[in-house]
Amino acid sequence: MSESAQVHVVVAPVFGTNCCIVAAPGAGAGPRDCVIIDAGAGVSDGVARVVEEQGLRPRAVLATHGHADHTWDAAGLCDRYDIPLRLHAADAYRLADPFGTLSGDGGEAIVSGALGQELAGLGFSPETYRVPARIEGIEMPDGAADLAFGALTLRAVHAPGHTEGSTLYLLDEPFGIAFTGDVLFAGSIGRTDLPGGDGATMRSTVHDVVGRLAPSLTVVPGHGPTTTVQRELATNPFL
């Protein structure tokens, strides 16, 4: 993990989404700036505990992409800390219709399938999903952008294929952390059969974006265990 910043992971009870609180380095009299990446369903209380215990000041909620299992608690956290939700501009439309954009090839929304069953079992329903009041689309005309949040800076890198606006967030290259959402997992990559997904685009992303990441980067994916770029380059069959 990065030596200059702190990362705390809260695993969502729905689909095990990894919600990451990334805090600026240092300890002083005032709170440290932080961002919250991928606010999955049911993470709000855990995030609030980390923020309070660590003396943090949230500056934004970031989403690696617009799927509901990565944005469900974004509105509540944005309201709590009076901050925006930021994600690639190409995925912002998904927030207005989070389940319609999760329909499979047959037109049946996935929320009525596995995701719906898991949400219902934990007391969530489509009717309780809220859209954040402030949504800021991240523009990446050259495929990447540096995002500054007070004392904390991350690099956003466009990595489409799972969705049109899928984004990697990089911290402290080349020896830091890559938050890869549903683009790269330990031993696998994201699915491309949902609306906005594209197999050819994902193959290009895997080769031209993921394949060129610094091998020394630790990878925190959107779901599942932490890995490294070096390990995935050596063992991931999709790379």
TrEMBL record:
SUPFAM superfamilies: Metallo-hydrolase/oxidoreductase (SSF56281)
Family matches, as Pfam families: Lactamase_B
UniProt entry keywords in alphabetical sequence: Hydrolase, Metal-binding, Zinc
TM region(s), chain numbering: none
Domain (Metallo-beta-lactamase): residue spans on this chain: 16-223
Names of the cofactor(s): Zn(2+)
PANTHER family reported in the protein's UniProt record: HYDROXYACYLGLUTATHIONE HYDROLASE GLOC (PTHR46233:SF3)
Protein name listed in UniProt: MBL fold metallo-hydrolase
